Structure formats: C-alpha cells, structure tokens
Amino acid sequence: MKKIIYLFCIIVFIAFVYFMQKPANKTKEQMSTSVAKTSSAQQGGLDLTISSPTSGAVVALTEIVVKGKVNPRANVIVNDEDIKLSIDGTFEKKLPIDEGDNYISVVAYDDLGNSAERELLITRTISGI
After folding, report:
1. Domains of the chain by range and CATH?
2. How many C-beta neighbours within 10 Å does residue 50 have?
3. What pLDDT, on the 0 to 100 scale, is given for residue 126?
4. What b/e sequence results for 3-13 when a residue is b if at least 16 CB atoms lie within 10 Å of its CB, and e otherwise?
C-alpha cells in the first residue's frame, strides 16, 4: 500500500511540473481562453482570490501590486517567484509593468497536491497619448 501511495505522489508531482511549464508569450486569444478556464473561485481544493489588479486593466503606472488571498498553508508563486504569505494567507507582490501587454501568472499549491492558477492581463499605456 505504501508503494501505491508513493507512486501516486510521484505521478501527481510529475503532472504538476508538466502543467506548470507554459509558453512565455501567449497571444491575447490564448490568454482569454486561459483566463476563462481559471475564473472560478475554487479549483482543485484551493480558494485563490486576486483582489487587485483586475485582469484587463489599462494603466499608466510603471509598477503595480498584485494582492490576493489563499489558504495560509498553501504556497504562492507570482511570475515564477515564490511569495511569502501573511499568517492569514494574504499576499502582495510589487511588479514592474512594461509598455503594452503584461501577463501575470499567480499559482497556489499545497502539500496535498491541490492547486489553483489565475492569469491576469494588464496593459500599460503611455500617459498623455
């Protein structure tokens, strides 16, 4: 029985790693499809909420702060960087924003193999144009 559980854990880990690898440059159509797939409040047993920014926002800022909340025992990655959670599961990450479309990926996962992902599209415009 222990071997079966061990094998199951390995398969889940391999699947997690496989699905975490995604193309760096997605088209707007691919992004729209991906956002639609992840719009539910809860996926895979984790409730990942992004309070700001809103996907599709158009800004003139050079940086934004991604804010959200997840189960305090989860791990969070924003654009491939591990984020430290507050004791209540909230998190913040300041990100630079380039001119044009900026894709932000937020992934949460726990030790039980549950995961959730949100993808945001933020567009920076040059102020005054």
Report:
1. 25-124 (2.60.40.10)
2. 19
3. 84
4. eeeeeeeeeee
- Note the pLDDT of residue 77: 97
Higher pLDDT, 58 or 26: 58
Specify which of 7-11, 12-16, 45-49, 122-126 reaches the highest per-range mean pLDDT: 122-126
Amino acid in position 50: I
Q: Is the pTM of this model over 0.70?
A: no
